[in-house]
Amino acid sequence: MSYLKSNLWLPVAGNKEEAVILIDDPSDYQRIMEIQGVVNARNYVFRVGLPEHIHQFLRGDADADMEAGFDDVFDSLGGEGGIEVDSGSDDDEDEGLAATSGIIQLVNRIITESERLGASDIHIEPGKDDAPGGVRIRVDGICRELLKVPKEHCAAMIARVKVISRLNITEKRLPQDGKCKLKVRGKRLELRVATVPTVQGESAVLRILAAGSAMPLDKLNLSPRNLEKVIKASAHPHGLFLVVGPTGSGKTTTLHAVLGYINKPDKKIWTAEDPVEITQPGLQQVQMLPKIDFTFATAMRAFLRADPDVILIGEMRDHETASIGVEASLTGHLVLSTLHTNSAPETITRLLDLGLDPVNFSDALLGVLAQRLMRTLCAKCKQPYKPDQKELDHLVDAYGREAFKDLPYDLNNIELQGSVGCDDCGGTGYKGRTGIHELLMGTNELQAMIYKKAELDLIRAQALKDGMQTMKQDGIEKIFRGLSDYQQLLRVVAQ
Questions:
Q1: Which is more confidently placed, 54 or 219?
Q2: Average pLDDT over residues 100-114
Q3: What is the DSSP string of 234-245?
Q4: pTM over 0.85
Q5: Sheet with 133-139, side-by-side order of all strands
Q6: Residue 41: C-alpha distances to residues 4, 15, 25, 377, 439 (Å)
Q7: What is the mean pLDDT of residues 56-81?
Q8: What region does 242 belong to: left with phi over 0, alpha with psi -120 to 50, or beta?
Q9: Residues paired with residue 148 on neighbouring β-strands, in sequence order
Q10: For residue 281, is the peptide bond before it cis, meaning its omega torsion is within 30 degrees of 0?
Q11: Which of 120, 180, 378, 393 lies at a C-alpha separation of 20 to 30 Å from 404?
Q12: Of 254, 212, 195, 196, whose CA–CA distance to 115 is shortest?
């Protein structure tokens, strides 16, 4: 160990065919000849590292900088002093800038802190002209500022993000996508990284992928009526069941909860996803690779030759994937998928617009579950209050006066919950999210309307007649149960 410390080199990977050596000066031929005498391999690959990083690896505290505080990190950056980022700088300068220990600590600290706060995304944004850049994180669907970063360090941070996600550090004019896997406090994290060139410099968004196991179906907070219908639909041996909503509305979580419910040894389940976020034992899960033309449609064709009982297809984004999905559901398979639409009735018109055969589609459809995620009140600090008549009338009218009569609430004796704010929820009054749902079932009357390509308003009216509760109604019911408030509902559903 002391020999490696004094000679500043370190074997980091390899085998008898090829050894990867970390060294501070790859032009030192004397040391290279010495390394070739010590390390027995056919080929040698030399990587450049700063002396302090080589010492850090040898001490075994490569992850120590993960725990540094922001103040300490900025102090160390100040010590590195006045790095000016020139848009015309050499590529090697960018590499060196990204590798300064202060920048590494800063990026590591941002990722660690974001994970601790339960963020889903990290936004690194350059400031206007000489103004400081900012780092924002999205927690429970809402962006909040994490810290300001001096202008001269923004480009270095982006460069560091590019290095860890194996993006082209020299290309600053085009958007790039990549991903990386990290270990934070013994916990494995996967980040999807997207960089976008802006007029002020490059901006980056890091999505923290939610690794882990599937959530149980009964923990999704579906209303008892909707839960019963979803279970009934999932018990069908064949048919098409869709979960719809915008990006980040929990569609994958819901589908994996359904799969977890029906995942038994007697069922062969194939899934095609992009990306595979949630893994379950017993499922055969496939990652899409569009670069080599391995798309959802390609995967579906392969699955149909692989003796499936249940197929999950990540998204029905084109006519080809949708039509293969419908055909598969008609030939004895249960097909689950997602779509980016705003409501359950809208999904039907969208798929018909994609060019699906209305006869096959109407026969295949089991149901459509539309959903959103609404922020919930912090369990530690929320407080009950007696709403005034105006607020009550507003909620009842928004739900529908006739429909509200069926709910087990006495308007003269109702208590709602209000937000307060504490250390546990960061002073916001809200912590966590819950799903609100709208479930349209493929009844005989609805199938007849799909067959005739009926208008959206008629489909919606029929779905309500069949007992569909709208997302707004489901949200208001959860407000009366004390889970959230009307302000949060309006953030995710239209007026």
A1: 219
A2: 82
A3: HT-SSEEEEEE-
A4: no
A5: 142-149, 133-139, 119-125, 201-209, 187-198, 176-184
A6: 18, 7, 20, 61, 63
A7: 51
A8: beta
A9: 134
A10: no
A11: 378
A12: 212
